[in-house]
Amino acid sequence: MVARLRCPVCTQPLAAATDTRALRCPRRHSFDLARQGYVTLLAGRAPHVGDTAEMVAARADFLAAGHYDMISSALAGAAASALATPTGPAGAGGSEGVGFGAYPLVVEAGAGTGRHLAAVLSAWPDAVGLALDVAKPALRRAARAHPRAAAALADTWQRLPLADRSVAVLLDVFAPRNGDEFHRVLHPAGILLVVTPTDAHLAELVDVLGLLRVDPAKADRVADSLAGRFTPKHTAVHTARLTLDRAEVATLVGMGPSAWHTDPARLAAAIDALPTPVTVTASVRLTAWRPR
What's the pTM value of the predicted model, to 2 decimals? Predict the structure, then answer.
């Protein structure tokens, strides 16, 4: 894992220091390993701190209840299918056949708690994983999400702290997409898996709670952000019906962009007025992209 990391200051390879709990490059730039298990790999200060500890805890509870397991399962299945080789699917003797080496790397950009990354690793026994996020509370959880996963604080809009062509699978779930950097770090035989909401996602809550609507041109904007660097190979829509109580609805709303654009008091009052339980549609589009 460490061999594929790069210094965010000078892009030189990183290695574990022998005299302290840190990663260090040949030019002596040093990055301490936090007691909670993650490493900060930034050239400067992060432009924002991401989710708070309370938001991360609520998100972890929501995901642990299985409400978005359909996303995790779809990602695991798409990774196995996309990386299948004549010798079998990745994890069953096929990963080395496409040049990934003995321990293929799965990276999730904007990983949050790392639940989706863990699902892919569980389905791919010879892979290792890296969760990237700017929120320290999320990284504390992501570092423990799976025995073969590590976590690093990194801004996905900056240069990623990874070697060229070092990533076998890159996951992006409701997260920003840095097309240039994704293309640089992804192996030529690798796959980028992008999950975005469809216009049916949370449709039952949009009007009654005054939430932001999914942009009808969302799919086109995603394609534009990756154009010239990636080619779409497969797209599928995955849908589930969620049965939620009011607290879970509040958490669900808080996990999305509406949390930053809705008056908290008005939103809380609208949620309190909902009948319970609440039936909500979760609908996402998963697209597999190959690097050009």
Answer: 0.91
Residue 285, sorted as left (phi over 0), alpha (psi -120 to 50) or beta, turns out to be beta
Residue with tokens 């056949």: 97
Q: Which residue numbers in the chain have pLDDT < 50?
A: 85-94, 96-97
> What's the farthest any 2 CA atoms get from each other in the chain?
60
Query: Which residues, in sequence order, are CB contacts of 267 under 8 Å at separation 6+?
Result: 209, 210, 250, 253, 258
> Residue 91 has what pLDDT?
43
* Amino acid identity at 250: A
Question: Distance between CA atoms of 286 and 292, rounded to whole angstroms?
Answer: 19
| 3-state per-residue secondary structure call for 94-157 | CCHHHCCCCCCEEEEECCCCCHHHHHHHHHCCCCEEEEEECCHHHHHHHCCCCCCEEEEECCCC
CATH label of the domain that carries residue 178: 3.40.50.150
C-alpha torsion sign, points 192, 193, 197, 198? positive
Total domains in the fold of the chain: 1
Q: Which domain holds residue 53?
A: 2-291
pLDDT at 87: 36
